[in-house]
């Protein structure tokens, strides 16, 4: 990913702090697919994910001066904002009602190979990872990492013993790392 | 615990997934601060997870970007990058205090504007009501005047009616004698009637037709008792003449007559000025 960047992280941050719209456009163009993917995974439908994405970038624009570089990279910070905004959106009452209907379809759809492709990642790479990562491994990673579910929630949702959650999670992430290294 | 042990313990995986316990998080963060190798490994994991995210990235619809940039360019507070309260970001307290301050100011301004508009509306409504009220007041007063005039007319009619009823009762009383007094030779057109109750001795006069006298003169009724004229009183003409007029009482009479005398009446009748006269029937 670093190779595709024409700005260093320091340049990005100082540009954002100066409310430089050119930098902000660059930020949007390069990070919106990943953040949109996260929002989509959490909220499960495109319109709501679009709203979340917009809210996330507004928050970044307004609050860049509160980003602390010593606590993590910019992408990690933006990722946290996205995850939290999306989870909040999902928890909001109105959305919940729609979500009940959506859940059935979106869970199934989400684990189909994705058609949209990120700028720097080719479709093949994704397919490779998806194919080799077992479906239940993907689900357990996504529940924890994207949706912020606790061990208890995961155990209840997947109907597995609480102690098994840790083991499966560990194995799933190790498998994921192995697959990513092969790309 | 050496760094390598940490790396293979499996805590990093749970930490990455966000399901490590508080104790595990504390341990790992302490190890990251202590051993650069652990910190590097955690960072490598993080990049892997973020790569996994990127793999699943999807290009959002173009209109989201358009709408976002419109929002940022058109909202003054966004252009200035004014911070908003957000629980996910640092320093939420300070920001929310600022927000509360400006919110309450805006709220006050809004409330004041709403109150002003409300007051204007009420002014208009009440002014219209006042105008209506004034119209009604005028109408009410004119109604009051006309009601008074109706009332006084009605009283008049009531009095007239009572007088008529009274007259009817007198006329219809079987004890009352009706004594018609036709005109004398000198005044053949004249006509008057006496209603006399010999028991109660009451005498009433009804003018049927008598010429209106000059202002210095009045008609006077006489009863002829045993050949002598007895004064029964003067009477009014005009409107009063249409009613029965109560005269002086007498228990005896053979005849009644009317003469025209000076105002207030005379002690003896002026025979030349006798207009009407009539005998008691029977």
TrEMBL record, chain A:
Q: Name one GO molecular function term.
A: sigma factor activity
Recorded hits in InterPro entries, A to Z, give: RNA_pol_sigma-70-like, RNA_pol_sigma-70_dom, RNA_pol_sigma70_r2, RNA_pol_sigma70_r4_t2, RNA_pol_sigma_r2, RNA_pol_sigma_r3/r4-like, WH-like_DNA-bd_sf
- Which keywords accompany this UniProt record? Sigma factor, Transcription, Transcription regulation
Q: Does the keyword Transcription apply?
A: yes
Q: Which stretches make up the RNA polymerase sigma factor 70 region 4 type domain? A: 126-173
Q: Which family does it belong to?
A: Belongs to the sigma-70 factor family. ECF subfamily.
Q: Which NCBIfam families match?
A: sigma70-ECF (TIGR02937)
Official protein name in the record: RNA polymerase sigma-70 factor, ECF subfamily
Q: Taxonomic lineage per UniProt?
A: Bacteria, Pseudomonadati, Bacteroidota, Chitinophagia, Chitinophagales
Automatic annotation (TrEMBL), chain B:
Pfam families of this UniProt entry?
Answer: RskA_C
Q: Give the stretches traversing the membrane.
A: 107-127
Which species does this protein come from? Chitinophaga arvensicola
Any one GO biological process? regulation of translation
Q: Which InterPro entries match?
A: Anti-sigma-K/W_factor (IPR051474), RskA_C (IPR018764)
Determine the domain of life of the protein's source.
Bacteria
Single annotated GO MF: sigma factor antagonist activity
Cellular component terms (Gene Ontology): plasma membrane
Q: Tell me what this protein is called.
A: Anti-sigma-K factor RskA
Keywords from UniProt, A to Z, are: Membrane, Transmembrane, Transmembrane helix
The family database entries (PANTHER family) matched by this protein are listed as: ANTI-SIGMA-K FACTOR RSKA
Using the record's annotation, list all stretches that form the Anti-sigma K factor RskA C-terminal domain.
108-270
């Amino acid at each position: 990913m670093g190779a595709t960047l024409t700005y260093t992280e320091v340049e990005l941050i100082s540009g954002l702090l100066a409310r430089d719209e050119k930098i902000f456009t660059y930020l949007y163009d390069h990070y919106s697919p990943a953040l949109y993917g996260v929002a989509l995974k959490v909220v499960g439908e495109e319109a709501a994910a679009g709203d979340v994405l917009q809210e996330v970038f507004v928050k970044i624009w307004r609050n860049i001066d509160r980003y602390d570089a010593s606590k993590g990279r910019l992408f990690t910070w933006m990722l946290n904002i996205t995850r939290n905004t999306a989870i909040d959106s999902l928890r909001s009452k109105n959305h919940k009602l729609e979500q009940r209907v959506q859940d059935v379809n979106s869970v199934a759809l989400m684990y189909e190979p994705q058609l949209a492709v990120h700028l720097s990642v080719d479709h093949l790479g994704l397919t490779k990872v998806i194919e080799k990562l077992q479906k239940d491994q993907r689900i357990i990673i996504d529940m924890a990492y994207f949706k912020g579910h606790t061990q208890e929630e995961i155990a209840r949702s997947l109907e597995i013993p609480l102690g098994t959650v840790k083991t499966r999670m560990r194995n799933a992430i190790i498998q994921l790392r192995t697959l990513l290294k092969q790309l | 615990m050496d760094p390598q042990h940490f790396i293979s313990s499996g805590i990093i995986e749970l930490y990455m997934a966000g399901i490590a316990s508080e104790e595990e998080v504390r341990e790992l963060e302490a190890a990251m601060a202590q051993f650069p190798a652990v910190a590097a490994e955690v960072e490598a994991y993080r990049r892997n997870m973020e790569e996994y995210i990127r793999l699943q990235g999807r290009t959002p619809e173009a209109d989201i970007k358009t709408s976002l940039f419109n929002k940022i360019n058109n909202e003054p507070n966004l252009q200035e990058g004014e911070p908003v309260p957000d629980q996910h970001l640092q320093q939420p307290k300070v920001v929310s205090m600022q927000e509360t301050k400006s919110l309450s100011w805006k709220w006050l301004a809004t409330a004041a504007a709403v109150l002003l508009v409300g007051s204007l509306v009420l002014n208009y409504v009440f002014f219209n009501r006042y105008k209506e009220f004034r119209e009604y007041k005028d109408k009410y007063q004119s109604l009051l005047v006309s009601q008074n005039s109706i009332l006084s007319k009605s009283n008049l009619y009531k009095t007239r009616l009572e007088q008529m009823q009274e007259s009817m009762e007198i006329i219809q009383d079987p004890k009352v004698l009706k004594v018609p007094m036709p005109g004398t030779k000198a005044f053949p057109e004249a006509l008057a009637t006496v209603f006399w109750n010999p028991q109660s001795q009451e005498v009433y006069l009804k003018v049927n037709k008598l010429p209106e006298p000059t202002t210095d003169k009045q008609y006077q009724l006489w009863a002829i008792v045993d050949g002598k004229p007895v004064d029964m009183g003067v009477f009014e003409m005009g409107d009063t003449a249409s009613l029965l007029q109560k005269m002086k009482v007498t228990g005896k009479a053979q005849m009644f007559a009317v003469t025209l005398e000076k105002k207030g009446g005379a002690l003896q009748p002026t025979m030349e000025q006798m207009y009407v006269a009539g005998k008691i029937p029977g």
